[in-house]
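Sequence design from tokenized structure. All designs in this work follow the same two-part layout: the structure record, then the generated sequence. An example of the structure record is given first.
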């Protein structure tokens, strides 16, 4: 039994054999679909955001560094710019994942300004709203069967623990292997 464990650990840590390690299926619980791509060597690519890049760079020289994914700069792939980060799930065959949004507001002020400058009615966001609370839309929103993005974003923050506790759990995926 001990010799097998030793071999298993050698296989697990050997960079040559690592490429044959079974990979987990890509997991994205929330956020904008298509924002992430799997990359080589235990890394992921996330669509580039200048503000996020500055934050990631600062974190690499901060006391929080041991608690965040390693940042490996930005890359261009298929004509698209990405921030390249450590894939924290790379070592797991069947991970359980929780997406936790932190902060008292989970959207950028720029998003709100942009959405207010060019408001468009969103039927999809209206649907999400009434699925959670059929009484949430105003009379006008019910007639239009749509809401604006700023209205939806602000409403969403008020119904969750975001505003009161400073975080919310956006999604959880439990691995079938853990049951």
């Amino acid at each position: 039994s001990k010799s097998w464990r030793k071999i298993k650990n050698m296989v697990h840590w050997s960079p040559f054999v690592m490429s044959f390690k079974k990979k987990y299926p890509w997991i994205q619980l929330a956020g904008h679909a298509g924002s992430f791509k799997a990359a080589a060597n235990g890394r992921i690519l996330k669509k580039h955001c200048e503000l996020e890049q500055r934050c990631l760079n600062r974190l690499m020289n901060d006391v929080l560094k041991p608690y965040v994914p390693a940042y490996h700069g930005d890359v261009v792939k298929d004509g698209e710019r990405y921030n390249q980060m450590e894939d924290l799930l790379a070592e797991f065959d069947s991970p359980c994942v929780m997406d936790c949004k932190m902060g008292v507001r989970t959207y950028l002020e720029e998003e709100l300004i942009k959405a207010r400058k060019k408001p468009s009615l969103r039927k999809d966001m209206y649907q999400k709203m009434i699925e959670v609370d059929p009484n949430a839309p105003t009379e006008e929103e019910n007639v239009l069967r749509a809401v604006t993005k700023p209205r939806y974003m602000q409403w969403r923050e008020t119904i969750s623990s975001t505003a009161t506790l400073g975080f919310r759990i956006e999604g959880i995926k439990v691995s079938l292997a853990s049951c």
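The longest helix spans residues 2-13. We note this feature because it recurs in several other targets discussed in the main text.
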